Amino acid sequence: MTVFAVEYVYDAESSETRAARRPDHREWTAGRAQEGTLLASGPYGDGAGALLIFKAADEAALNEILKQDPFAAAGVISGIRTTEWAPLTGLLADHAA
After folding, report:
1. What is the pLDDT of residue 97?
2. 29-54: average pLDDT
3. Is the pLDDT score of 94 beyond 90?
4. Is the pLDDT of residue 64 over 90?
5. pLDDT at residue 26 is higher than 80
6. Which residues contact 54 (CB under 8 A, 6 or more apart)?
7. CB atoms within 10 A of CB 37
8. How far apart are alpha carbons 82 and 93 in whole angstroms?
9. SS in 3 state form for the chain?
10. What is the C-alpha separation between 9 and 16, in angstroms, rounded?
């Protein structure tokens, strides 16, 4: 499994839609965390986006997971940056390939 850092950039005009869909999004992230696919996630302090740390077989598998996010279905994400990441130190180091 590969660890990926996923950065969401939210559409600037999406705050109302995000607020309405946030419970569904958080239920979805909780489910991914429970199954061990999502290692950590949370919004940036300025509200402009979020960072999510996933484990997936490859980028294609990760993209299939991300399509299921209620925020994606609601169209509130204007950009996604996905990067393979190797956590070598700290709490997530055990997840590095």
Report:
1. 65
2. 96
3. no
4. yes
5. yes
6. 3, 4, 6, 32, 37, 38, 39, 62, 65
7. 16
8. 19
9. CEEEEEEEEECCCCHHHHHHHHHHHHHHHHHHHHCCCEEEEEECCCCCEEEEEEEECCHHHHHHHHHCCHHHHHCCEEEEEEEECCCCCCCCHHHCC
10. 15
**Sequence letter at residue 91:** L
pTM: 0.93
Determine contact, residues 4/56, Cβ cutoff 8 Å. yes
Q: Is the dihedral of CA 33, 36, 38, 39 positive or negative?
A: positive
User: Which candidate, 29, 31, 55, places its Cα nearest to that of 42?
Assistant: 29
What pLDDT, on a 0 to 100 scale, did the predictor assign at position 95?
87
Tokens representing 53? 């740390």
φ and ψ of 79, to 5 deg: -160, 145
Cβ contact 83:50 at 8 Å: no
Q: Is the dihedral of CA 58, 59, 64, 67 positive or negative?
A: positive
